């Protein structure tokens, strides 16, 4: 599959999210805010800190494995309040640090090793309770990665990446076919693909120097719960008062519910509108700027939407 074919994952995401945004009932994009907000994004935003930054001296296969494996388990934000965190670290940073410790000290898992991982293995690695639901979910995701590498790519991360022939959309589309990166919701009777982690994995592999990918600007925003939160706090997204009250009361959103799908889809479409109004910035670059902004105190002071799922 090439980047120019309309069935690539980023194109599917872009079209579906625009469709949802046009019909959303609980979430609305404040069209009048787009131009001014886009102007405030001028400049080259720094990407989020790279958890694998200290692996730059590792061989290509290890760096590839670290990016793919981290994105395969880059979910669980709805569970972050319940996990054991490292001092001063967020939930994601805690999980990422545990995984990177493994790669730094012992190198990459082989594909065969991945297929044998258990919840207990992940719990020991990440210093978590083996009974925590995330451990079983993380282990299942990594086993799926190993199975696809063995079945389709000669047990090689590098071979899987090279099969996309340098196309970011094609690489995202490859990962989207793995259960480890599953991320599709229903809105009414329509399937709505998001594939946050499949696209982010492609971007991270380019950033790590594992692959040189063209058409990174074809990727969409990486739909999670933080970017919608930032856009809501900044007035780009307007929420139904009942939805706002539910989020600020700390109530979990049901994954796949109309409100949760609308939050993610409207955020993705809003970033597309911002990219169109801010020449020189891609949707992925704007996503990075908003993700960084979400770490500031004023955004942390307001409860963000949370949902327990394996998508983000």
Structural description of this entry:
The protein has 312 residues and is mainly alpha-helical. The protein is built from 15 helices and four strands. The chain has helices spanning 9-23, 34-39, 60-72, 91-106, 111-115, 119-126, 133-152, 157-162, 168-176, 196-207, 226-233, 241-248, 258-277, 283-293, 297-300; strands spanning 27-29, 184-187, 190-193, 237-239. Mean pLDDT is 94; it is low at 1-6.
Distance between the termini: 26 Å
Strand content: under 5%
Q: Say how many strands there are.
A: 4
Shape: globular
Q: What is the helix content?
A: 40-55%
Rg over alpha carbons:
19 Å
The structural class is mainly alpha
Which ranges are low-confidence, i.e. pLDDT below 50, for 5 or more consecutive residues? 1-6
- Please list the strands of the largest sheet in the order they lie side by side: 1-4
Order of helices and strands: HEHHHHHHHHEEHHEHHHH
The largest pleated sheet is described as: 2 strands, antiparallel
- Count up the helices: 15
Q: Whole-number average pLDDT? A: 94
What would you say about this model in short?
This protein has 312 residues and is mainly alpha-helical.
Question: Any chance you could write out the topology, listing elements then pairs?
Answer:
Layout: H1 9-23, E1 27-29, H2 34-39, H3 60-72, H4 91-106, H5 111-115, H6 119-126, H7 133-152, H8 157-162, H9 168-176, E2 184-187, E3 190-193, H10 196-207, H11 226-233, E4 237-239, H12 241-248, H13 258-277, H14 283-293, H15 297-300
Helix pairs in contact: 1-13, 3-4, 3-10, 6-7, 9-10, 11-14
């Amino acid at each position: 599959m090439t980047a120019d074919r309309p069935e690539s994952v980023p194109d599917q995401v872009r079209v579906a999210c625009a469709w949802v945004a046009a019909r959303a009932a609980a979430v609305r994009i404040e069209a009048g805010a787009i131009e001014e907000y886009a102007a405030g994004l001028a400049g080259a935003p720094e990407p989020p800190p790279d958890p694998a930054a200290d692996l730059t001296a590792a061989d290509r296969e290890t760096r590839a494995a670290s990016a793919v494996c981290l994105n395969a388990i880059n979910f669980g934000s709805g569970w972050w309040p319940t996990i054991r965190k490292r001092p001063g670290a967020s939930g994601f940073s805690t999980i990422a640090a545990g995984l990177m410790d493994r790669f730094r000290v012992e190198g990459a898992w082989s594909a065969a090793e991945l297929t044998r991982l258990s919840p207990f293995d992940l719990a020991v690695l990440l210093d978590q309770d083996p009974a925590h639901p995330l451990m079983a979910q993380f282990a299942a995701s990594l086993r799926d990665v190993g199975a696809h590498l063995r079945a389709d790519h000669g047990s090689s991360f590098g071979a899987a990446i090279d099969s996309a022939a340098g196309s970011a959309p094609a690489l995202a589309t490859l990962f989207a076919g793995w259960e480890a990166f599953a991320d599709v919701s229903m809105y009414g009777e329509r399937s709505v693909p998001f594939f946050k982690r499949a696209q982010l994995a492609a971007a991270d592999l380019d950033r790590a120097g594992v692959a040189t990918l063209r058409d990174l600007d074809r990727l969409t925003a990486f739909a999670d719960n933080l970017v919608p939160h930032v856009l809501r706090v900044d007035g780009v997204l307007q929420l139904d008062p009942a939805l706002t009250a539910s989020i600020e009361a700390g109530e979990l959103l049901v994954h796949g519910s109309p409100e949760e799908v609308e939050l993610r889809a409207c955020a993705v479409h809003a970033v597309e509108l911002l990219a169109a109004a801010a020449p020189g910035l891609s949707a992925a670059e704007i996503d990075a700027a908003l993700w960084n902004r979400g770490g500031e105190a004023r955004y942390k002071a307001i409860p963000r939407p949370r949902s327990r799922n394996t998508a983000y």
